């Protein structure tokens, strides 16, 4: 299996879970790694120290028990503040620091961070250099292809990244003004890969093993990064890994395995966030797991009513037990 390196870390398989705020928390990262992801990037964490003691930041910076390599994303606009944030996260377990210049949000962490920074190449250089100088771990960068159609300067930013000592670059094949619309274009990613010697990770709309292989072939990239397609489908990582290794598709996971994965995920969410927040956050994941099932609306309606961890687990268990037994689930009775 071809591997990819970030500093001293070897990524095998060459498939990465994209950072997604509100999605790639520790329970989801641990699950995706177990199911085949070579690397999972944390949710974005603010570089502003005033927010580090909030419950949200504490959960985002908690890496206890997380398998290596631990990659933590930071966002911000002030070089010295970003350097401090990088150091703080390394002190709290980060083995890779990832910098977010790919987020389309107008305001990230109360500043024009994210992809807006790509319009200021000199500031980009200063941020990257100060973060790289601040920590001993590898620093990676995530960008889009540019701000809008007329300002697609990702190749320039990519060169700056390499010169600043960035260890690997992830590129989402969209401009900032496209948000998540249209389809990702891979030609710019291929051009960036061709001009750099550091590893490049291709991102955008990769939703199947075949698509992953096609994007790797088209761009020549070292790895692929998967975001939305992993929501409710964490086993996509082993499916992609298997296809890249053997050129054949794995069968869909059996229902009994989906049941076990889902129940384990719920239990981890309840334990990590506590019952009230855990049950609420789990609803979102349950909706994603159910999205490809014909009976999904009914399932969601019932499970969303669960107020306690015990009830959420029981309803989910009952539902899958009925499906596994080949019986149409009695949803209203189960509630
Ligand atoms: C809900 C959500 C949250 C996201 N949060 C972040 C983030 O915190 N940092 C970041 O760099 N990108 C973020 N992104 C962008 C993803 O990392 C990724 O670049 C994008 O979804 C395209 O990949 P995909 O087509 O595989 O989903 C987010 C995307 C989504 C859908």
Helix vs. strand class: alpha/beta
Mean pLDDT: 91
Overall geometric form: globular
* Small molecules in complex: flavin mononucleotide
According to DSSP, the number of beta strands is 10
**Going by CATH, what is the homologous superfamily of the largest domain?**
Aldolase class I
> What is the correct CATH architecture of the largest domain?
Alpha-Beta Barrel
Q: Main sheet?
A: 8 strands, parallel, barrel
Strand content: 15-25%
Summary of the model, kept short:
Helix content is 44%, strand content 16%. The protein has 335 residues and is an alpha/beta fold. The strands form 2 sheets. The protein has an 8-stranded parallel β-barrel with strand order 3-4-5-6-7-8-9-10, surrounded by 7 helices. It has a two-stranded antiparallel sheet with strand order 1-2.
Kindly describe this structure.
There is one protein chain. This protein is globular. The mean pLDDT is 91. By secondary structure, it is α/β, with parallel strands linked by helices. The longest helix is centred in the C-terminal third of the chain and has 19 residues, at 255-273. Helix 10 (275-290) packs antiparallel against helix 11 (296-303). The strands form two sheets. It has an eight-stranded parallel barrel, surrounded by seven helices. Strand 5, helix 3 (79-91) and strand 6 form a beta-alpha-beta unit. It has two domains: 4-246, TIM Barrel (Alpha-Beta Barrel); 255-325. It has helices at residues 26-34, 55-60, 79-91, 121-134, 154-163, 187-195, 209-219, 236-246, 255-273, 275-290, 296-303, 309-324, 331-334; strands at 4-6, 9-11, 15-17, 39-46, 70-75, 96-101, 139-146, 168-175, 200-203, 223-226. Flavin mononucleotide binds next to strand 4.
């Amino acid at each position: 299996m071809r591997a990819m390196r970030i500093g001293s870390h070897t990524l095998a398989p060459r498939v990465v879970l994209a950072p997604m705020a509100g999605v790639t928390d520790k329970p989801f990262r641990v699950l995706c790694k177990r199911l085949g992801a070579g690397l999972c990037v944390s949710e974005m964490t603010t570089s502003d120290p005033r927010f580090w003691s909030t419950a949200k930041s504490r959960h985002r910076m908690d890496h206890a028990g997380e398998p290596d390599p631990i990659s933590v994303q930071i966002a911000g606009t002030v070089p010295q503040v970003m350097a401090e944030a990088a150091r703080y996260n390394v002190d709290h377990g980060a083995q890779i620091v990832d910098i977010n210049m790919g987020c389309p949000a107008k305001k990230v962490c109360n500043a024009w961070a994210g992809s807006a920074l790509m319009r200021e190449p000199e500031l980009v250089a200063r941020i990257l250099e100060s973060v790289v100088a601040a920590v001993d771990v590898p620093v990676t960068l995530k960008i889009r292809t540019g701000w809008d159609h007329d300002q697609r300067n990702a190749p320039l930013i990519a060169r700056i990244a390499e010169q600043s000592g960035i260890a690997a670059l992830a590129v989402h094949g969209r401009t900032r003004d496209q948000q998540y619309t249209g389809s990702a274009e891979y030609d710019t990613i291929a051009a960036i890969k061709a001009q750099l010697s550091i590893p490049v990770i291709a991102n955008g709309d990769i939703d199947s093993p075949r698509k992953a292989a096609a994007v790797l072939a088209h761009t020549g990239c070292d790895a692929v990064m998967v975001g939305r397609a992993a929501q409710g489908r964490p086993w996509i990582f082993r499916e992609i890994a298997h296809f890249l290794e053997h050129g054949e598709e794995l069968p869909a996971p059996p229902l009994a395995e989906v049941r076990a994965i889902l129940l384990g995920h719920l239990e981890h969410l309840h334990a990590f966030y506590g019952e009230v927040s855990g049950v609420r956050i789990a609803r979102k994941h349950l909706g994603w797991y159910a999205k490809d099932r014909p009976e999904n609306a009914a399932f969601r309606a019932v499970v969303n009513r669960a107020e306690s961890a015990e009830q959420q687990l029981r309803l989910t268990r009952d539902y899958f037990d009925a499906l596994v037994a080949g019986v149409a689930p009695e949803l209203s009775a189960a509630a």
